[in-house]
Amino acid sequence: MIFIVICGENVKSELGFSLWFHDDENLRFVKIIEIGKDLRSVWALVAVVCTIIFTWRLLLAPSGPHGRQPKPQPQPQPSSQVNTQPNSNLLPSSTQTVIDDLFQPVKPTLGQIVRQRLNDGRKVTCRLLGIILEESTPEELQNQATVRSSVLEVVLEMTKFCDLYLMETVLDDETEKRVLTALENAGIFTSGGLIKDKVLFCSKEVGRTSFVRQLEPDWHIDSNREISSQLARFIKCQLHISPLKTEQIAPNVFTSSSLEQFFGV
């Protein structure tokens, strides 16, 4: 604590100024400075007092700036949906088309589908009636033989990939020629994978069973449920063609309404 005392300090009782400091620990006053009466001394006293007041106010002031609060930052509003897709309006049409094409799923070719569905089976035997031909009985073949247009693409693809044998039960030699002519006119022999010698004919259904067992194919395709059941023990995989939904013949016998439907055509 600081006191300013006005007192007479000499014999002539001239007034002067003395600056005293109170020592709180020793409970006594200590004189800091004594200033005379002249004008120079008065200004010195004023400077000292101003310095003391300024220092005292600095010591009492808070460490942070007065009355200045941090400005609150606006919080982003939550959004229920976040758009992660680029804005197509910002891209040129040609660029957007290229981007769309890059992200389109690659569609497998028919050849890839055939290989996948046959599980890379290389040798295949297949009946003609009701599968490749429109006719469903040997008696119908005595009048005409018609290749189903919807299955032609699948058969041609199979001839490129598989060792394909076609077989059927016929009642006479004329029917054999009629069937071969129908296949040739449809272009089945043009691919080079199938020749006329791989089209086999028999006079009874049991003959087809013998053909299949002798050839030992990876797959056999038939529309006769009894033959498919008999061959289930000997052939690795079979495809039974039936327009009606039937019970599964065996675990290794698949069922489809048509050959092209089995390959997704």
Describe this structure in words.
By secondary structure, the protein is α/β, with parallel strands linked by helices. A 6-stranded parallel β-sheet has the order 6-5-4-7-8-9, with helices on both faces. Strand 2 and strand 3 form a beta hairpin. Helix 3 crosses helix 5.
DSSP summary, beta strand count: 9
What is the count of helical runs? 9
What is the residue-mean pLDDT, rounded to a whole number? 79
Q: Which sequence of SSEs, written as H and E, runs from N to C?
A: EEEHHHEHHEHEHEHEEH
Helix percent reads: 25-40%
How would you characterize the largest beta sheet? 6 strands, parallel
End-to-end gap: 105 Å
Broad structural category: alpha/beta
Low-pLDDT sequence parts: 2-15
Widest beta sheet: strand line-up: 6-5-4-7-8-9
The radius of gyration over CA amounts to 54 Å
Q: What spatial form do the alpha-carbon principal axes imply?
A: rod-shaped
Beta-strand residue fraction: 15-25%
Which descriptors would you attach to this protein?
alpha/beta, 9 strands
Any chance you could write out the topology, listing elements then pairs?
Layout: E1 2-8, E2 15-23, E3 28-35, H1 39-60, H2 93-102, H3 110-117, E4 123-127, H4 138-141, H5 149-161, E5 163-169, H6 173-185, E6 199-202, H7 205-215, E7 219-222, H8 225-231, E8 237-241, E9 253-256, H9 259-262
Helix pairs in contact: 3-5
